[in-house]
């Protein structure tokens, strides 16, 4: 696949010329050393991307000429919300990077009852959004996922889920409904929410919350996976399973 230079630009584009600021100017002019006439793709405009060419460089700006508006072909089979218990180290960053590339629509981090306590990081939200934008650039995804601030518990994570849709499921290492069976009941135009617990597992209190909120267990295999791997595997398998079901549909 030919190399594609992609720049995140969420601003509205009403005309055929776009002026980018200092950060993009530095990246295009001094890191990539582009010349006028070379191609750049702007993403962050919903499911539309802008195919542009460099018109010229200013002192700390770059002007692009919009040649074509393209409809992205990387939209997922269904919108997936991932609610995941935070872990130690950079696990949350790894989850955001990988699941953004896989097409997750929303990410809701929360502190589980068995989560390992972490020091507060006031720049975490900024860091996660930067990682998501970079993952979009690399994977050719058009729009980053919505990422919520870390919520204090499972109650708040459940409250943040969208009502209706395909409902919610939680990953259960002890069994749970088979993924392929569940995929046949998912409607592709409706959100499905997947909740992933910490490596210490779900507490009895959290299991009671699931039962009280009609959140059903989902199994993805007999092995016990780390939180970051479980999140990646769950999103990838659900996306692929639903895509396969759609292909089988008449």
Key structural traits:
alpha/beta, Ribosomal Protein L25, Chain P, Alpha/beta knot, 2 domains, 7-stranded parallel β-sheet, 5-stranded mixed β-sheet, 7 helices, 25% strand
Distance between the termini: 32 Å
Q: Can you tell me the CATH architecture of the largest domain? A: 3-Layer(aba) Sandwich
The CATH superfamily of the largest domain appears as SPOUT methyltransferase, trefoil knot domain
Work out the strand percent: 15-25%
Overall shape: elongated
In which range does the helix fraction lie? 25-40%
Protein architecture, described:
The chain is of the alpha/beta class. It folds into two domains: 6-71, Ribosomal Protein L25, Chain P (Beta Barrel); 80-248, 3-Layer(aba) Sandwich (Alpha/beta knot), CATH 3.40.1280. 32% of the residues lie in helices and 25% in strands. It has helices spanning 22-31, 91-102, 124-139, 154-160, 179-183, 204-212, 227-248, and strands spanning 6-8, 17-20, 39-45, 48-57, 62-71, 80-85, 106-110, 146-147, 168-171, 177-178, 192-196, 216-219. It has a seven-stranded parallel sheet with strand order 8-7-6-11-9-12-10, with helices on both faces. Strands 1-3-4-5-2 form a five-stranded mixed sheet, sandwiched between helices. A hairpin with a 2-residue loop joins strand 3 and strand 4 (48-57). The longest helix is centred in the C-terminal third of the chain and has 22 residues, at 227-248. The two termini are 32 Å apart. The mean pLDDT is 86.
